[in-house]
Amino acid sequence: MDIIAQHIATTLGIQEHQIEQTLHLLRNGATIPFISRYRKEATGGLDEVAINDIKENAERLEELIKRKESIITTIEKQGNLTAELHRKIEACWDAGTLEDLYLPYKQKRNSRAEVARQKGLEPLAKIIMRQAEGKPEKHAHSFINNEVKTDEEALKGARDIIAEWVNENEYARQSIRRIFKSQGILYSKVQKGKEKEGEKYADYFDYERRLERCPSHQLLAIRRGEHDGYLKVSIMPDEETALRQLNRIFIKADNECAEQVEMAIKDSYKRLLRPSIETEFAASSKEKADTEAIRVFAENLKQLLLAAPLGEKRILAIDPGYRTGCKVVCLDEHGTLIHNETIYPHAPQNEKSTSARKIEKLVEAYRIDAIAIGNRTAGRETEHFIQNLRYDHEIKIFSVSENGASVYSASKVAREEFPNYDVTVRGAVSIGRRLIDPLAELVKIDPKSVGVGQYQHDVDQTRLKNMLDQTVINVVNAVGVNVNTASKHLLAYISGLGPQLAQNIVKYREEHGMFNNRRELLKVTRMGEKAFEQCAGFLRISNGSNPLDNTAVHPERYKIVQQMAKDLGCNVEDLIRNKTLLEQINLTHYVNNEVGLPTLTDIIKELEKPGRDPRNEVEVFEFDPSVRQISDLTIGQQLPGIVTNITNFGAFVDIGIKENGLIHISNMGNRFVRDPNEILKLHQHIYVKVMDVDMERKRIQLALCDPKE
């Protein structure tokens, strides 16, 4: 029986056999998207989130096992490993408890207790700790020597040793942990003399709250203020409660020796035990806050990547600007740059007529279908200018988020794509491509740079990167990509590929032309059967030799579809999009030892709507034309807006001015809202009511509203 699977089952509340099967697949090189999509019978239908949780828990437990082995080896070399201690370590599955067990055997530095031992005072400490005799001074006197000059010095050394014993006692540490957990208070104070310099942390200059009830965003803000040197932060429970608990554990008598032990307990708590446990809780609370912040970031990133694509349309894209002008590019249906130039419709040049003629001619000459305008500096003004032009055919105009566009335009990826163009052209191209297919463009940018996070620079960067990378992988594979048109950057996120195989696919495509069927992928350098198994179902080939290659049906299941067609007296192509024929199929006839109803149901859904895209259709949006700056806002005003970022305390909304407004979670409806994602989605078009405007701090408070009200 897999001991790791047992512990994960207890932690996650998932059946043990599901976890065992999932771990087996992961250990044999299967990816999370492949397992969740094509191995539902094995896992019991676990989704990407559950599989990733299993993977992370398994990795944590494997590290814990390695740590246990290291501790056992170290103690054994010391000659201190008893059968009972060995049993306790082997049975321990909590990292904190494990370190408690190891603490007495750690190599001691030149601590006060170690100095006292070197002076020969440990026997005195043992006498006092037994609390069997009432006069500790009488025993202390016999320990006076060249290094210990007085009775009090001997007693102080003995108390230092006792303090260390208290600190290293497993039961005592667990007791103090429980008190910290139930009663620990987070205190935040301003550093003396930093009041003005650290004004942005003013909310936390005199802050206290039960640690377990402190919201993650507040804790991360406090820790940032501490890191920046403006706040002094501590975590502690009531001291008297903690000392009473320790006294109950260690005080065994009512005499002078017991008084010495009580003095040692107080010293141990203040100097050793409390700081140690406080450090643990600072780390664990930060980890918990990180987890929540990373979850919010990952959810926002997922929504951003799933933003609606316009599809293969010819785009005129504009990166707006004032003094330096607006960079204009024209892209064909595949996002290929076919023209670029600069116009100057705004101050100081104010070349409106010339700029208008240029745009109108470009729209006509390049048969433009839609215009994409960056939403930052001069975005509203440029949008207004473009909307008032006359075109020879219908043109849709879109405001496109520029978040991360500047990062892309200065990146190595952009330089490889456009070695002969400057950053302004690259930025405009990125804006246009985001309209055609946001996912294909955004995968070229570090996820941290897309502007949808919460305290992303304050959380564990390794955990953040892993979660965001996995989010991108999950989304790319959920959507699927056309292997004949996808960039190497998009292909790299496909299950089983990675950067090198993605590059090899593009190189093969350049040398041999378009792929005609999925099996041809096996001709790509370094594409083995395992990699093919993992990637094939997520790669699409349109107009190829096999119609199933343009669906999410995996090649390993083609024979089943062929048998279905044969049983119905038709060919495979006849089945696709033919709901009447598909409804005649009795799935139970095709169940076998490897394939069950979950997979067969997915196959039928895919045949009914092959290559179905989970993304919505893009919609045109217009801001209120009367609002151009914060001074145009009035209390009670209702405005259209776009959700730009979601946190666990609310959502930020672009209402068409420089400053985004905030809908606090308490202003999202007439009911209690636990998570803003229950109500809103990134880039959602909504209506808001202006509740408050702080002109000095440039803060806008909004409430979600119904435009019909």
Automatic annotation (TrEMBL):
Keyword line: Coiled coil
Entry keyword Iron-sulfur: no
InterPro entries the UniProt entry points to: HHH_9, NA-bd_OB-fold, Ribos_protein_bS1-like, RNaseH-like_sf, RuvA_2-like, S1_domain, S1_Tex, Tex-like_central_region
A Pfam family matched in the record: Tex_N
Keyword Cytoplasm applies: no
GO MF, one example: structural constituent of ribosome
Organism domain of life: Bacteria
GO cellular component: cytoplasm
Domain S1 motif, residue spans: 636-705
Annotated transmembrane regions: none
Coiled coil: 51-78
One record GO biological process: nucleobase-containing compound metabolic process
Protein name (record): RNA-binding transcriptional accessory protein
Organism: Candidatus Gallipaludibacter merdavium
